[in-house]
């Protein structure tokens, strides 16, 4: 699976730094959420089940170290995690890695470098998270589950497979013939292009007016999932 389309939770109390990191990650195709305290981080972690965490250690109230221990021990999660801190001493970096961080970034840092480190860790740990997230729509193929902004929606088997196919190929035009081959490859009976159109219409309806528009009709060709 592409490392794009992964949900990332940034835990950073400085709103300016948070927005800069978020901007760069969104630009590179990630679905990004932000938290500015330990309490908010816990709540959002449970709600969005992110594929990646960027965690500042110097937080107001509960520390980043405490959040890391909660993720690794209490939640028993192996989600890829990068620690961000002003503590540059070698023993601090070692302690962070021993706590379960996959990488350790010292402030100040460039947003470009952080994005590169995120992508490096994701390539190394891509088997830990196989869900796809774009613009608030999260699809979990193993659980056969789709959420829109944390709310589960009910799709039929073919609707789920069609949305999965579109989201696996973000911003690519897929013809109706390609979609039919994907959905009905083992069936000998003839299925018309109209079947694809009906599936698309139902998916859009279930995603809601705003999110349904992410599935774009390319007149005379097919459909495209607008991810970015």
Describe the model.
By secondary structure, this protein is an alpha/beta fold. The chain has helices at residues 15-27, 38-48, 64-74, 90-98, 111-124, 157-168, 176-183, 193-207, 209-212, and strands spanning 7-11, 31-35, 52-56, 81-85, 103-106, 132-134, 137-140, 145-148, 151-153, 174-175, 215-218, 222-225. It has a five-stranded parallel sheet, sandwiched between helices. Strands 6-7-8-9 form a four-stranded antiparallel sheet, with helices on one face. Strands 10-12-11 form a three-stranded antiparallel sheet. Helix 1 crosses helix 5 (111-124) and helix 6 (157-168) crosses helix 8. The longest helix is centred in the C-terminal third of the chain and has 15 residues, at 193-207. The chain starts with 6 loop residues before the first strand and ends with a strand.
Key features?
four-stranded antiparallel beta sheet; single chain; 228 residues
Task: Going across the biggest sheet, name each strand in turn.
Answer: 2-1-3-4-5
Average pLDDT:
89
- List the quaternary state of the chains: single chain
Distance N to C terminus? 17 Å
Which percent band covers the strand fraction?
A: 15-25%
Show unreliable segments: none
Helix amount? 40-55%
Structural class category: alpha/beta
Morphology call: elongated
Query: H/E element string?
Result: EHEHEHEHEHEEEEHEHHHEE
Largest beta-sheet characterization: 5 strands, parallel
The gyration radius over C-alpha positions equals 20 Å
Number of strands: 12
């Amino acid at each position: 699976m592409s490392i794009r389309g992964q949900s990332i939770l940034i835990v950073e109390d400085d709103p300016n730094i948070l927005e800069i990191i978020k901007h760069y990650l969104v630009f590179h195709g990630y679905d990004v959420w932000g938290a500015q305290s330990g309490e908010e981080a816990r709540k959002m972690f449970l709600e969005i089940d992110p594929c990646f965490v960027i965690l500042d250690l110097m937080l107001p109230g509960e520390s980043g170290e405490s959040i890391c221990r909660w993720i690794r021990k209490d939640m028993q999660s192996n989600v890829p995690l990068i620690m961000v801190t002003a503590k540059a001493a070698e023993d601090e970096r070692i302690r962070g890695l021993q706590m379960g961080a996959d990488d350790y970034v010292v402030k100040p840092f460039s947003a470009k470098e952080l994005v590169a480190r995120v992508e490096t860790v994701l390539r190394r740990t891509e088997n830990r998270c196989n869900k796809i997230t774009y613009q608030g729509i999260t699809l979990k193929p193993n659980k056969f589950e789709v959420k829109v902004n944390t709310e589960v929606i009910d799709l039929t088997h073919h609707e789920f497979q069609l949305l999965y196919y579109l989201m696996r190929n973000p911003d690519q035009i897929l013809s109706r013939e390609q979609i039919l081959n994907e959905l009905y490859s083992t069936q000998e009976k003839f299925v018309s292009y109209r079947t694809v159109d009906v599936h698309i219409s139902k998916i859009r309806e279930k995603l809601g007016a705003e999110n349904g528009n992410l599935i774009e009709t390319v007149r005379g060709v097919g459909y495209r999932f607008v991810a970015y």
